[in-house]
Structures are given as C-alpha cells and as structure tokens.
Amino acid sequence: MKNIVIIGAGPGGMMAAIKAAEEGARVTLLEKMPEAGKKLKITGKGRCNITSSLEGEFFLAGYAGGKGRFLYSVLNEFSNFDLIDFFEKRGVPCKVERGSRIFPCSDRAEDVVEALKEELLQKGVKIYYKSRAQELIIADGGVTGVKTADRVFPAQAVVLAVGGMSYPGTGSTGDGYRLAESAGHSIITPRPGLVPLVTVEPWVKELKGLSLKNVQLTAFEPGGTRINQDFGEMLFTHFGISGPIVLSMSRDIGEYLYKHTGQQVGVKIDLKPALSEETLEKRLDRDFALYSRKQFKNALNDLLPKSLIPVIIELSGIDPEQTVNSITRSQRRGLVNLLKNLPVTVKGTRPIGEAIVTAGGVNLKEVDPKTMGSKITRGLFFAGEVLDIDGYTGGFNLQAAFSTGYAAGKYASE
C-alpha cells in the first residue's frame, strides 16, 4: 500500500486525499490550521459558489490568461458536472443561480466542508491539524517524505495543496511557494487576483457603501485600448470600488498595473447601460419637464440614488441652484454623457491578503497537465491555488482546485 502525504486541507487537498484513499493508498493529510476548509467556509460570502454550469470552451474561458487550456485534461476527468454529482450524492443538493453559478441549495458553505470531512473520515484518511509542513524530504530526485516541527512523515508521493497568499488568516501564507522552490520549481510572482481596486478621485469616498446594480464598467489603458468590460453590480468603498463586476475585472486591470508600474487605468461607469444616449436624453427631458420650476439639485431623484446626486451635480458643472427650465441643451447633453461615462481612475489594487484568489504560483510549464505531477521532482504533485492558475468570479477557482486535487490524488496513488 502506497504512503501518500497531502499538505493542505483546503478543497484541492481534501479532494486529493479522498481520491487517493479511494485508489487504495494510505493517506495522511497535514493541515497547519486547527480545522479543515477554513477558507472554503467563507467563500461566496459563506454560501460557497462551488462551480459553474457553463460547458466546454465557455467554461475554459473562465480562467485568466488562457490557462483554462492547461486544465483541459483534469476537467475532462473530473468536470463541473462530476463535482455537482459528487456533492449531491453526499447530501449536498445544488442549484444554479444568475451567471451560471452553482451553490448548495442550503446556501451554507459549511455543508460543503462537512461533506468533504465526512468523506475523509469514511475513507480512513488520517488528518493531523496544527501540523505545518516545514520541509520536503528529497533524495535521488524524488520526494520521500515531509517534515513537520515534531516528526517526519515518510511518503512515496506528496501532494502540495497549500493555497496561495490570499486571506492569510485562513492559512494561505505562501508556504507552498517555498516548498515548491525547494524541489526545484520556479514561481511566477504571486499578486492579487480577484481584489477590490483603489481609485484616485476624492468623491468616491463620499459614496462609501453605495451599491449600484445593472451598471456597466469599461476599463481602458492610458492610450485608449480597452482592457475589460463587465455588466452587473458594483460597490463604492472608502478606498475605491469593489463588488462582483469590479472583482471580475480586477484580474486584468491588476495585471496591467503590475506590468506597467506607475501607470493608471481609466474606468468608465455607465449608470444607464440599458438606455442609448438618445433614449436617456429623452428620459431626462421628461423628468426636466416634470420638475421645470425646481432647482437642478432637486430634479434627479427619479433617476439616481440619493447619495449619488451631489456627486453627479458637482461633476456636471451645472449650478445646483439653477432652475431646471434654464438648463441649456448643451448642459443636458453633457449630463447625459456623464451618466453614460462616469470616470474613475484606478491607481492600484488592495493588498494580496484581501484578494479572493492569488494570481501567480508554481510555473505550469513544470507540471504535467494530465497528472498534476512535477516534471522536476519524482513523486511530487500539485493541486489548487498554489499553481499559477486563477479564474474569474463564478466558481472557476474552486472547480480548478477540486479537479486538480482529484487528478493529483489519483495519479499520486499509481
């Protein structure tokens, strides 16, 4: 019976342990935190967006930088539908929500974690909590064990599934990069993946807490080339902008800022994407006719959230005391343009510790995409966020963790 040690009891590590035990291996799972799945419990605001219902190329497009291609084999072996089936068979029925997102019907991430822990127990996996892997033991080009502070765990194969550097309070503190480097691997510099953005404009702070639904964001390089565009919900914060579409776009915006130090990214917010400029101008004309004798500052209540009105008035350059019937057509057109192109300047991202996922990690060129095995050190396998793979919001990152974990557990057991 083959001895396998898995480092990290997150989604990738737990799935690797379950599959390895299923294949007949003797499995030891090391977790430095006092419990398994700590980060998994807080994903999706505690609801756990397990995966996506998208298929084929549409699913692969959910990974940044075209890296979905690297996952092609493992997703074929353990797909999003296999994952849904896995949980439903273990008492966690799932549902599809907006944007093809899959959640447990209970809306409880804890149910997902408990199902995995129960499976580990059923499969006879030995779990050691508060056990930080300090060193990989390597001899003659192959891994032979793992050393913790107080003991050595012999192994014919080791799966490194310790996560990245996001949410360090859950245990993701970059240990995996050091361990991978000790086995000869190179690391693509870790940086924030899905993360809130820091902006320049002082007025953004005035809108702290304001959530906008059904808006469209477009990000541009300084030269005008479009970086990304998305539609949905966003949030203003004391430092800048956040919310679902901001997080989704942050991966590409962050990468641009990372590659172009000192530059900034322009973002335009279309507050009324369902209306063309012409239609919006007609809507504005109707509102202005209704409030023709009122001051401009009191004429936008039907069009905008209350806290946004003073900001729009200031940026429009129209005197807030001016009566509506004295506003010129030129001023109206300028206001329409502002509502369709509210400008925000992004100067950076929040720290990696606040990111939902880490971009960067173990270089994919050094990993077999079918087995998740190291091309450098025999018996070493990888799973999850420690790899240089990151997806957009929508369940892609968890699916990558589960699928790479499944493959790593299977092939480590051979």
Please outline the helices and strands.
Blueprint: E1 3-7, H1 11-22, E2 26-31, E3 51-52, H2 56-60, H3 72-77, H4 80-88, E4 94-97, E5 101-104, H5 109-122, E6 126-129, E7 135-139, E8 142-147, E9 152-154, E10 157-160, H6 175-182, E11 187-192, E12 197-199, H7 203-206, E13 211-220, E14 226-236, E15 240-242, H8 244-259, E16 265-270, H9 277-290, H10 309-316, H11 329-340, E17 342-349, E18 358-362, E19 380-382, H12 396-412
Parallel strand pairs: 1-2, 1-10, 2-6, 10-19
Antiparallel strand pairs: 3-5, 4-5, 7-8, 8-9, 11-18, 12-15, 12-17, 13-14, 13-16, 14-15, 16-17
Radius of gyration, in Å, reads 25 Å
- Roughly what percent helix? 25-40%
Please count the beta strands (DSSP E, at least 2 residues each): 19
Note the total helix count. Answer: 12
CATH class descriptor of the largest domain: Alpha Beta
Low-confidence stretches: none
Oligomer: single chain
* Total domain count: 2
Question: How many angstroms separate the termini?
Answer: 10 Å
Q: Within the largest sheet, what's the order of strands?
A: 12-15-14-13-16-17
Shape summary: elongated
* Residues in β-strands, percent: 15-25%
| CATH architectural grouping of the largest domain | 3-Layer(bba) Sandwich
Which class of secondary structure composition applies to the elements? alpha+beta
CATH superfamily of the largest domain: FAD/NAD(P)-binding domain
Q: Could you tell me the CATH topology label of the largest domain.
A: FAD/NAD(P)-binding domain
The biggest sheet, with number of strands, parallel, antiparallel or mixed sense and barrel status, is:
6 strands, antiparallel, barrel
Overall residue-averaged pLDDT value? 96
